[in-house]
Amino acid sequence: MNYTAENSLITSLFFDDPTHGTQVDEAALLLTVDDFMDEGCRRTFQGMLRVRRDNLPMDLLHVADAMIADGLPADRAIPLLNDATSGAPIPGCIQRYAAEIKEFFRAHKTRRTIALAGERLQEGEDVQWVKSNLLSEMEQIEETRHSNEDQLIGEMANPVLNAMADRIAGDDSKRGLRTGLSDLDGLTTGINAGELWILGAMPGRGKTAFALQVAMNLAGEGVPVYMLSMEMSKSAIFRRLLKMKFGSVVVENAEPHWGPITQYAADLESLPLYVNDSSSLEAADLAAKARVRIARSGIKLVIVDYLQLIRGPGRDRRERTGDAADTLRRLAKDTGVPVLALSQLRRPDNLNDRPSMIELKESGDLEAHAHVILLNYMPMAEDGSFKGDEAEIILGKQREGPTGSISVAFDKSKVKFFPRSMFR
């Protein structure tokens, strides 16, 4: 048990608090009643919060009354209060004690959660159901680790200004991750740490092609990327990479090109591009997989293909997709690793209409969560084929920069985007 830290904290809150309750407020920001393992400390802390809420003096008498008001008999409350205040604290260590208590409780809850999963399996519960619940509960435990401290507005300036100065001086290492399309990178400064990017496109209009192009561009520079593909299998992704490298003719008739194909496959083994092709994932499962891979492999970009395939709570698809987007936003913020999520666009009445964020399915939630929204535009010819040389990537939203569009060309044979000037 962690009684020493708990007793020391409670004693400190009584006898090392010249501000008469302010340190209880500080402790309440760091801990909940349930974080205490010892019943006496837990009940005493609950009583202290009640006293603080009622704006009464923070002394033993009022806390004892609060414990009794919370349902404890007097002959039980007084001994518990005495035990809870038996610590010998070091002055000024409220935050240290709170951190020890929180970490001990988190470890205890982790062990209990894993043990419970084992018990459920022994009782014959469905393996996938147990796994999903375990990942969800572990994700919730992990989220309690992240706590943002208050900061003076002036203290926030230096890191931002330093990064801006480095960019002005030409230090590309301080820019975001490059997509490989220079015009887009210039307009956005790249995919920056902690951002959620959403790319919307109608089926067959290049959203997966764009994501793979970004992934291969970064992996080719040694940047680790993690792609969760619920739409395409690993074998389909590999065939797509062959098209990107050699063109569709190689996939359709591989025999004459077998030597270059096998050499390219060998070259791919050295790239830090990790792929998971689970056909359907809960939002919590997806986030847990990403956190594990980030920790193991130093991932710098997570790609999700695509949002509408993520399962989760909610009465309808709109709510489920909104929950998935919020989970990805929190994943990016908590880990500092940006996320590029793909999304379907709603089919417009006229297929050649330029898309807007209105066409994003469940667009209200997606627009609110995203830092950057890209929309692929590829008009159709009268014969129903795509006009790849008239494609655009529309920057529909950018929280910290301008919007606009990038003129590109889409090579249908290599399923890749190029600057339009290079395609002609």
**Total strand segments:** 9
The CATH architecture name of the largest domain reads 3-Layer(aba) Sandwich
Highest-level CATH class of the largest domain: Alpha Beta
Query: How would the global form be characterised?
Result: elongated
Tally of DSSP helical segments: 17
The biggest sheet, with number of strands, parallel, antiparallel or mixed sense and barrel status, is:
9 strands, mixed
Alpha-beta classification: alpha/beta
Helices and strands, in N-to-C order?
HHHHHHHHHEHEHHHEHEHEHEEEEH
Can you tell me about this structure?
- The chain has 424 residues and is of the alpha/beta class.
- The chain contains 17 helices and nine strands.
- The protein is elongated.
- Helix 1 (3-15) packs antiparallel against helix 6 (94-122).
- The chain is 50% helix and 12% strand.
- It folds into two domains: 1-149, DNAb Helicase, Chain A (Orthogonal Bundle); 170-423, Rossmann fold, CATH 3.40.50.
- It has helices spanning 3-15, 22-30, 39-53, 60-69, 74-84, 94-122, 127-143, 157-168, 182-188, 207-220, 234-246, 248-252, 258-268, 283-297, 317-335, 363-369, 420-423, and strands at residues 196-201, 225-229, 273-276, 301-305, 339-344, 372-377, 392-398, 404-411, 416-419.
- The longest helix has 29 residues, at 94-122.
- It starts with a helix and ends with a helix.
- The chain has a nine-stranded mixed sheet with strand order 3-2-4-5-1-6-7-8-9, sandwiched between helices.
